[in-house]
Amino acid sequence: MTSSELPPFSGGAPQPVLSRADRRFRWWLGVGVALLSLMTLAAIFVTNGNIVVGLAPSILVLVVYAVAKLPLRYPVMFIFAVIFTLDTPAEPFAGGKYQSPLHLVSELLTAQLKHVIPGSGLIITGLDLFIVGAFLLHGYRRATRSKLDRDDYTPTPIPLLVAAWVCLAGIAMAWLLGLATGGSFRFSLWQVQRNLYLPLMFLLFQAAFPSPRQFKPYFAMLIVIACLRSVMALWLREQFPLEEYATSHSDSMLFGTVTCLVVIRLMHGTNRRERFRLVLILLLLIVGMVENERRLVWVQIAVALAFVFVMTPWSSFKVKLIRRVLYSLPIVLGYLAAGWNSSSSVFAPVATVRSMVDSKSDGSTLWRDLENFNLVMTFRRTPLTGTGFGHPFDMIQPMPDITAHYELEPYVPHNSVVGLWAYTGYVGFTMLWMILLVGCYLSARTFYVARERDDRTAALTTFCALVIYMLHCYGDMGLGSWVAICLICPLLALVGKLAVKVGAWRWSGSRRRSAAPAASPS
């Protein structure tokens, strides 16, 4: 064939012919890019030039693509890392005096979208949309028998799953009861939201992470975030020295859990290099807790480590420690007695202890005592089922009115534990709290049965985290906190799978049997 016989504009070679499917794909791709561009321009126009909101449609498309193509654990862990790291509208840094440059990202995830997108009227959050999409994707993959989220699958113990569903049923019962007896629908939604995320996110985590070994990056993330928060607390305290706290109240749970993790790791034996690194981390955490100035964190660490002391086997170190504590007891008691009524900085630790036990010495403690009294009296009125969500607690004893600054106070009190007793009664509290007690049981059993150091550390750290969370709920509004959700839900999912892996809990329907002996805890 001569050059004159070649097809025109061929360049000397025949052009590939696109199939009908390829042409259809290119057409839909062009339509999608055009729609995405229009949505971006519309978002920028509506928000008066806010570039971050304008990029939200593109970010949403990327997230949807990542969720569809990657194992579910990667987008779940990424979303939680973002929430865990950034300041949220509900828990601002330095009392709201400081906002991080990426604050709007956390606002898109954790705040109602009506506050981010003016005029939308959306009362849901970006995280709500993500949770619904993640569950739908998980259901689709299970229906199509996809192996993307089934690598090295370890089942979750049935009692833990049942406890999560019982918790959801208890929330629904308290909500319906409150609405049926004339409760406020608006405020009941806040109470439901405070309780709903814990069981839902646990179910999501146990579905997204098929194996306990895939939780290892989570512990590294905890340590890194706690160290970053410590540095942030030190810097914010220098910038805002008169603020009540540096980062947030809920960071006490993060600091306390990671402190216990580091101490437990040191107790289980490490080499010299790792021991030096852990000691440095521990010192940095102590600096962060001091600068954050939350007295509850010291109680949480003390109680959690007391459980660690009781649960770990007896050793010569524990015997020596008990002897030294007994020897120093007269000195400690004398120090407390000498500084109980002193305002000197030398007795600052004594003042902290007194402020937690003596309401006459601290206005905050007195105010909480009044709140606890009103909650107890509300509980006594309907002890079996509680008042239901949507009802405020009874104001039997007058107390300072803070509803101008925090209108949820009569519905979401500082003492979340006694508040649950008042709103849900014996039955509801048992249903809502069961998942935490089952988690504690599995953590303790796994710790005693496990043989590997990492497994024992993970189990005992989970037990400490649950104790710290319960104490925080009692002392400082831990219920529904974003830090608590990001901390407790993954650990509950981990300890359940870890219990099956090491043989601490037998799963009769499992296709995979653990090689570990079915030993009983001594």
Give a description of the structure:
By secondary structure, the chain is an all-alpha fold. It has two domains: 34-143, no CATH class; 158-502, no CATH class. 66% of the residues lie in helices and 0% in strands. The protein contains 19 helices and no strands. It has helices at 20-46, 51-54, 56-69, 73-85, 103-110, 113-116, 126-143, 158-180, 185-208, 216-239, 251-267, 272-292, 296-311, 316-339, 348-357, 363-381, 416-449, 453-475, 482-502. The N and C termini lie far apart (90 Å). The model is unreliable at 509-522 (pLDDT under 50).
How would you summarize what this structure contains?
The protein is an all-alpha fold. 66% of the residues lie in helices and 0% in strands.
Helix-strand blueprint:
Elements: H1 20-46, H2 51-54, H3 56-69, H4 73-85, H5 103-110, H6 113-116, H7 126-143, H8 158-180, H9 185-208, H10 216-239, H11 251-267, H12 272-292, H13 296-311, H14 316-339, H15 348-357, H16 363-381, H17 416-449, H18 453-475, H19 482-502
Helix pairs in contact: 4-10, 7-9, 8-9, 8-17, 9-19, 10-11, 10-12, 11-12, 11-13, 11-18, 13-18, 16-17, 17-18, 17-19, 18-19
